[in-house]
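**Reference record**
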Amino acid sequence: MGFAFVTLAYLGYLGVTLVMALNNPSYGVSANARIAEWGRDHGLGGIVTWAEAEYNRLNPPKVGGNPTAGSFNTNAKPITLPKGVNLPIPARMPSPAGTELPGEGVWSPAGRTTANGIPAIYETYVRPNKVNTSYVVGVAWMDQTLLQAQLYSGSYIPGKGPFKYSAPIKASASKSLVAAFNAGFRMQDAEGGYYTDGRVVLPLRVGAASVVIYKDGTMAVGKWGSNANFELSDNQIASVRQNLDLLINNGQFISGLTNPNATKWGKTLGGTFNVWRSGIGETASGAIVYVGGPSLSIYDLANVLKLAGCVEAMQLDINTDWVQYSTYQGALNTPINGGNGTSLLKGMLGPPSRYFTNWWNRDFFTMSLRPQYLVTTTTSSKKK
């Protein structure tokens, strides 16, 4: 009798919490994502992982075909910018699928520009590989000479707050905002640590892939413990967000990316399945590159990042509800909200407004214009 009562009470508890999860937007946009997050929070992670793997095995991405019309920018116009102010505009990106289709890999400005009209972010679109050619992946290139980065921390990821910067993005911070995008796995799955607000929230792992933000707003990507500038002791680092292991180091792929049994890039789905994935990298010139989209294996993700010029790169989060990159428009020095945002890909389920809500409890990154580029400047030259 006692055992039966305890069992019924426990089942009732699970039922109540499941209903709450299904009505909680922070658990994802889709019902499947909300059920999965609920399951992982209630000790059912193994079952959730098995179910996700079975679903992806039984529903593989389409093979062959062409992207829908309008997937690429076939009307891009040449852009001429003044020298010495910004990084050189990236060259057309090669397609992972081989020969480029019209407009594929061509960059276009996105989001707010400086007060002088100089774009700080460019976006392009490519097919993910030579097999799943009907899908399109989004790539964003960010100029750090014009932009400064910020890590926003959540009550759920990483937890252990409160934090100085958490959702919603405040009106004052939105005045210079150009982009916001997802961070990495839940910390219990990230196999790494977290540092912000002058404290180690979770211990940093030597060798872990790390997004490092310095106090001057510059972002770097690399392996913790092997980079001379990755030292908390020098008091120059504002935040560190770790997630699994690197994909690219010193311009070279990390070994094992094509191994179907590799788990170093996530035990939840490993690297075999072609699913929605996101990643971040740094180019030799110091630009930051974000990649996100469907039908990506872990090797495909690394390959897209490398073709975009990254010499250091790592995976961020995966699956449709968590892969989200947005750029924002609106007059500079004026508050904006999620309604001013545009997703990198139309297929991204999470809206640009999520970062402006009280319920968003996961960490994310923002890129904002540096203060000196919020006002119009003039240059003069003397005639010789």
